């Protein structure tokens, strides 16, 4: 029995794979294996002999079975190790180079403005960039003789002789979207309208195409106080300066009454502009209570509804927030400028995730 044991324990230890191990199992403890045959011999023994040989054989069988399963587990571990080594993958490979494209500051700032106003319950409305002079002027209480028409440096669409369709212009501001929105949805409402506008003007702070965002809030009891709160909330969030001060200066727009131009607090130190501190002021938008004639033009009853409107330059606030000195560069499509001032494509601004980089 000792010989049998030594033989099998040694062979099991030396087995190189599972097939070899299985052969050994059959030879030792299989139905016709050596140990099974020995067990059959028990019947020919005297009861006394059997009492000694029986338990010893059973113990041997157990010992060999556990050696087999231990070896089987060891072989499986070794096989797994070998596989892990063979299928190893270096997940620390360097990342792919950054996508070449970037988000233009105007798009970025439009998203930022939208996120802030959306949080205050404003939705986004849009209108056409080519509009009739009725939407761009008349409906906004700017009749044809009004000096504001001349001041706007309007681009008129050319009409063939005898073409009597209404004159079209490249919209000079986003205010016509107020009228279109009122016509379509009436009051109450709370919207912003971002988009491109056009005026024949060109210098460091003016380009023939630029961007505005219009705001319009109508309800039964909206006042200038609501306007002030909304704008202060906006500036604090946008410029990321808590308690940034605003100054409302009495002004005039044909489509609002009363009207105010709004400045934000800033300082100029060594030619460096800082927002939200100091005692200088920077004009950022025009605003006021929507004129009753404008409500009427949009089909809204001025006896029942009132509200505020504002118009702000998107490019302007982008320049201020991101320290971009020349407006003209916004529209030069110079890749070096876009790489410098552009934003990563996946940095979508949200109030929770952060508005800027
Ligand atoms: N439309 C005006 C402009 O372009 C801005 C403005 C909008 C003023 C709404 C008052 C109310 O200058």
Percent helix range: 40-55%
Using the alpha-carbon principal axes, give the shape. Answer: rod-shaped
CATH class of the largest domain: Alpha Beta
Q: Separation of termini?
A: 80 Å
Shape-level CATH architecture of the largest domain: 2-Layer Sandwich
Q: Using DSSP, what is the number of strands?
A: 10
Count of alpha/pi helices: 12
Q: Are there runs of 5+ residues with pLDDT below 50, and where?
A: none
Beta-strand content:
15-25%
Structural class: alpha+beta
Mean pLDDT: 91
Computed CA radius of gyration, to the nearest angstrom: 42 Å
Q: Mind explaining what this structure looks like?
A:
With 357 residues, the chain is an alpha+beta fold. It folds into 2 domains: 2-86; 105-341, BirA Bifunctional Protein, domain 2 (2-Layer Sandwich), CATH 3.30.930.10. Helices cover 40% and strands 21% of the residues. It has helices at 2-14, 18-29, 34-41, 47-86, 105-119, 133-136, 147-151, 176-185, 224-238, 292-297, 314-322, 335-341, and strands spanning 123-124, 130-132, 168-170, 189-198, 209-219, 246-253, 256-269, 272-275, 280-290, 306-313. Strands 1, 4, 5, 6, 7, 8, 9 and 10 form an 8-stranded mixed β-sheet that branches. β6 (246-253) and β7 (256-269) form a beta hairpin. The mean pLDDT is 91. The structure holds phenylalanine. Phenylalanine (PHE) binds next to β9 and β10.
